[in-house]
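tool=predict chain=A
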Amino acid sequence: MIQTLTIGASPAEEDCAQLGRTPDFQRLNRLEVDCYQAALVARYGPPPVGAAFARDTSTHDFGRYTELALCFDPSDEAHADYAALFDEGLGRWFHAGFTAPVEYPDSASPTIHHADLAAAIRSATSIMRPPFPDGEQAIANLRAHYPELVAV
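tool=predict ok
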């Protein structure tokens, strides 16, 4: 039986787009979720075969928001072990060698640092070069999951 574990929209200790407050919320929310997935892949590797990331979308009074989720079979040991890595997720973007795709100096004017996932991954792979701890493995993880976005 497949279960869905909702992970969140961004690292727990980071600011993120706020439904009903952030201009262009839908786009920034999707960007942050995509980048969060990439950061988790960099840190923990791609999901095992048969497990997959998904988007958990919910409707609120102010509109729809999306969070990252993992679909997995808890009876499969590899799936369960991978899902357990996300109990803590990431606290900060830099814990996986990423920078925030968007910063929120105030609620009315977000600062976009990465226009899309490809830009965020390019930035992260340049940060992860030695002497970044485990940087080579993080880049290999990204290359395995996003071969079209990570240059060899």
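The beta strands are 3-8, 52-60, 63-72, 102-103, 111-112. The chain has a mean pLDDT of 94.
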